[in-house]
Design brief:
The protein is of the alpha/beta class. The protein has two domains: 189 residues, P-loop containing nucleotide triphosphate hydrolases (Rossmann fold), CATH 3.40.50; 100 residues, Helicase, Ruva Protein, domain 3. It is built from 14 helices and eleven strands. A five-stranded parallel beta sheet has the order 2-5-8-1-9. Strands 3-4 form a two-stranded antiparallel ribbon.
Length: 320
Amino acid sequence: MTPNQELFQNLRTYINNQIIGQPALIDRLLIALLSDGHLLVEGAPGLAKTKVVKTLSNAIDAQAHRIQFTPDLLPADITGSDVFKPETATFYFQKGPIFHNLLLADEINRAPAKVQSALLEAMGERQVTVGNSTYQLPLLFTVMATQNPIENEGTYRLPEAQLDRFLMYVLISHPGIEAEREILKIVQKEEKKEPLPTFPKISEKTIMAARQEVLNIPMAPELEEYIIQFIMATRDPSPYDPNLTKVLRFGASPRGTIALDVCARANAWLNGHECVMSTDITSLIHEVLRHRIILSYEAKSEHITPDMVLDKLMEYVPLP
């Protein structure tokens, strides 16, 4: 195990001690950070989605910002805009909140399409264009966007093509009873101003070195072939089950293949594996692919979900 692996495992433990009952979310956020990708999280209010980003930002040498998405938000409110300076009769660019290392886009589906597109374009291109000028985003740039599944009134659904920009789509639920007790204890300590554990800040240079180590994690050719065969099965499941062709309209894009590969490597690295194991892939299939497959109208009318389809494909596509 390398020093960076040990450091990130300690970081995971530290965040889990601060954010109780959401270990999967914490793992996925760290995987996104190590994979240079972005996360879409869906869960009810009050599940520490904001706090997990804040806790991570406190543990790394990075700037974090939160944007509350609302229907009256404008693209310039995110990207920034040219501002007139009367003293010199010139314009200068005032950077928006997107120019931070960690960005929490809270309730992204509350903002209209133009705002969503501005954010998602920046996520994909890693740059912002205002007028005739283009501005590069920070090298370390990770977005965690959230959606509230409870209220759909006044929301703007993210198009499938834009959903594909997210590395993973994570669904979270309420913690169990023991976790609820631990949460109450932590909040009581915070209210009493009792000192909480701290974590030495991880530098951007260390994160970039960790990303390189992730890319160097070996993966057997058989496992790489499994990823490809699984992606192909989402596009044409007829060799396994002809009935699934009526359920699936579109399968995962090549971006899904790349995402599953890099996430599996990051998961293996984070867990201290010397090489990618089959469980590193299968444990992330739902998060990586659930937003990349499009179901038919018939499937939706029968209340079939993408996770159900992925479960079937996992039964059919043989592991090496």
